[in-house]
What we know:
By secondary structure, the chain is an alpha/beta fold. It has helices spanning 62-66, 110-117, 121-127, 142-154, 169-175, 191-198, 203-214, 233-243, 260-267, 282-293; strands spanning 5-15, 23-28, 49-52, 72-75, 78-81, 101-104, 106-109, 130-134, 158-163, 181-185, 219-225, 249-256, 300-302. The strands form three sheets. Strands 7-1-2-8-9-10-11-12-13 form a nine-stranded mixed β-sheet. It has a two-stranded antiparallel sheet with strand order 3-6. The chain has a two-stranded antiparallel ribbon with strand order 4-5.
Amino acid sequence: MAQITGKVFDIQKFSINDGPGIRTTVFLKGCPLDCLWCHNPESKGAEPEISFTSEKCILCGYCAATCPDKCHIIDGKVHSYDRAKCLRCGKCTLECYSKALEVVGKEMTVKEVMAEVLKDVPFYETSNGGMTISGGEPMAQFLFTKALLEDAKKHKLHNCLETSGYAPMERYREIVRLVDIFLFDFKESDPARHMKCTGVPQENIVKNLIELDSLGAKTVLRCPIIPKMNDRKSHFNGIAKLANRLSGIIEINILPYHPLGKSKSSRIGKEYPMLCKEFPEDDEVRTWIETVQRVTEVPVKKG
Length: 303
């Protein structure tokens, strides 16, 4: 099991928004959804990608000299990067002193990931924290996700799993005993809008959540709210209505939109489809929370 591998794009220490206490969040690559507002666009593709932050470049020329496919050209003070020719071998990133070029995503074994996670056990013990697996969609790398959860439980760690809910239910049945809290995304209450905004149908996501609840799972309902897209009263009522059906729900998290996905998309050479480019005002977020809270007794908090 320790030698099972998966594609990881980040391991974030001292996370405080991905479950209770201080946590280490393991971000896996690959997601079957294509949310218009995706905050982690680098997580969508399953394969490694090259991130290029042009403002960090010091024009040293190492990448141009190293790249076997001549994807990088330094012309005066301009660094051009031809992604169409790039095979993403990562050689250009190996000695990029300024970190302008970086590989996003690498193959890691369960043993390698857990070695990082276990470094922070003292923080978990004093804060009731633990490990969170996020993404992307962790269920898209099911065997790796399951192996991580099993190994964490052997070390008596508290496990959280963030999921879109879009995966075969039999996979959730296999791991429900290993997950202390499911951080379950609920992105849109209207099925047609859900399809338009995420690229996948909503029906099985809700079915999976209801069945998980019937199996005794503890959940936090995490709801990204995007101005002019799903910040409407009918959706807030839909969030509360769904939460009211769950016996194992801990709380509802309202996740305000942030535009950081735009710069991340640019760094990996992708277009960002969202027109909204501003953080919502605090008063607006409070109104969202109050609107949901009026129709449910489940605690509603900003996530």
